[in-house]
Amino acid sequence: MSNFRVNENTDPAALVVTTPIYYINGEPHIGHAYASIAADIIVRFKRLDGCEVHFSTGTDEHGIKVARSAQAANADSYEFCNIMSGTFQNMNKAINLSEHDFIRTTEERHKKSATAFWKLLEKDIYKNTYAGWYSVRDEEYVPESEIVDGKAPSGAPVEWVEEDSYFFRLSSYQERLLRYYEENPDFIAPPARKNEVVSFVRNGLKDLSISRSKFTWGIPVPDAAPHVMYVWVDALTNYITSLGFPENKDNVSAMMRNCIHIVGKEILRFHAVYWPAFLMSAGISLPKRIFAHGWWTHDGQKMSKSLGNVVNPFDTIKNYGLDQLRYFLFREVHFGEDGDFSEKALQDRTSYDLANDIGNLVQRVLAFIQKLGGFLTINYDFTPSEKILFDNARELVGKMRTKIDKQDLHGALDTVWSLIAESNKFVNDMKPWVLVNTDTLRLNAILTVLCESIKAIAFGISPFMPDTASKIFGFINTRGEAFIELENNFTDQKFPVPIPLFPKEK
Ligand code: MSP
């Protein structure tokens, strides 16, 4: 009877999802939480869908920026990293990141991996002198032509660097990259960002300086002291370290083909130009997709430490609730676009979308069943209008899958909210309370289809709001571990007493 299918178009064995690894020069903020929650939503969806997913995140600990922050804190670099990396691990607990590999670039496994990776690139590496501008805040070389009023395009200060350096022959990858973008039109998303990357590459690629010789806080270049690797070469390699590189290169390469990198728009160039060129040089497959998300401002202003307006994820979760935040971030703006964070907008979303729409639906249906003694005689013998809601409920996850596979997280939530609206309207139209004394058979069918719809909704919100979903699963005696459970019909049963999902005082 069901038209539900699991995994029509995904290879269940090999999905890899990554977040950027975060610089630990400061405390985690909402921007970091955002990228990680986005990846977590995709991972949770795919796991519920029956895929095995490798999920990696972590901290980017080398480079001048981190070394200087440690100095400023009067701390040894490594001790500083231990403490700061710990705060990011705490963030992951606070945002309910599902099981993952947390990788630190100061770990031995990573040093081994970056060293082996460098050796694979050697045919494209030569020694020369770098003389030019460097932005420590962005950990990026800035061409003279991009300097505006003595600053990097990001507004960060730049300093002059002149030192021996190893270079990677990036220029020789220009044509191959352009061909790859052409042949793999979904490699970079969203499309507007892809166009920026393509025109950047078309404008000509210069060879890239990939080592530093005047400071030490990095991974040594093999047999080339005092050179340490440029922090971006070190950092990008984390993705394959997590897959077990340098062991089983073929397997790592195969997994990379099914890998989705979630990154912020300002670091897309590193992921969509440098990283693919490195991988081509190393003979490792390129990732399946690089998705660049937008940036959050706070009450219309850029977030910055100096303005003191950085949104702290720990405080926001304490004040407004975790699922409320996870929902807000992906409902308020289309994933890929910039957004503005405000406490008022978060509270409004909580009252309208969560307490009113979904909270009310669950409460009005399940509390009503309690009025009937908490026991429901299940009836799947549906009238056409009941059948429409039933079919829509069973089709929800399939509709979401096509959105999630495009990283359209906002669109996926939209489909859930349509079903919530349809279900609330169904209750209003069917008026089950009128049927209590007149038609028990219809009443049971109406409540059965509503429970089916609530079950589908709980599965639909589960990747976004795992705690709320698990409360709903508890109310309807459902395990909530895999979408395949949607195929199971309810049987006659006693329902536990529901408690309000989003009480007003929160
Ligand atoms: N360490 C590098 C990434 C290396 S990945 C191989 C880095 N770290 S970061 O800590 O500066 O930034 C990490 C991510 O946080 C970026 O993807 C960035 O887009 C994101 N955000 C930082 N501020 C942000 C907002 N205000 N809004 C949304 N995301 C933002 O770059």
Observed structural traits:
506 residues, alpha/beta, Rossmann fold, Isoleucyl-tRNA Synthetase, Domain 1, 2 domains, six-stranded parallel β-sheet, four-stranded antiparallel β-sheet, binds 5'-O-[(L-methionyl)-sulphamoyl]adenosine
Average pLDDT rating: 95
Report the span from N to C terminus: 41 Å
Backbone shape: elongated
CATH architecture of the largest domain: 3-Layer(aba) Sandwich
The hetero molecules present are: 5'-O-[(L-methionyl)-sulphamoyl]adenosine
What is the CATH class of the largest domain?
Alpha Beta
User: What composes the largest sheet?
Assistant: 6 strands, parallel
Q: Unreliable segments (pLDDT under 50, ≥5 consecutive)? A: 1-12
The CATH superfamily of the largest domain bears the name: HUPs
State the total count of DSSP E strands.
Answer: 17
Radius of gyration: 26 Å
Number of separate helices? 18
| Spatial sequence of strands, sheet with the most strands | 3-2-1-11-12-7
Strand content: 15-25%
Summarize the structure.
Helix content is 48%, strand content 15%.
Provide a descriptive summary of the structure in words:
It contains 18 helices and 17 strands. With 506 residues, it is α/β, with parallel strands linked by helices. It has two domains: 15-294, 3-Layer(aba) Sandwich (Rossmann fold); 343-494, Orthogonal Bundle (Isoleucyl-tRNA Synthetase, Domain 1). Strands 3-2-1-11-12-7 form a six-stranded parallel sheet, with helices on both faces. A hairpin with a 2-residue loop joins strand 13 (296-298) and strand 14. Helix 13 (343-371) runs parallel beside helix 15 (409-430) and helix 17 packs antiparallel against helix 18 (466-475). It is elongated. The structure holds 5'-O-[(L-methionyl)-sulphamoyl]adenosine.
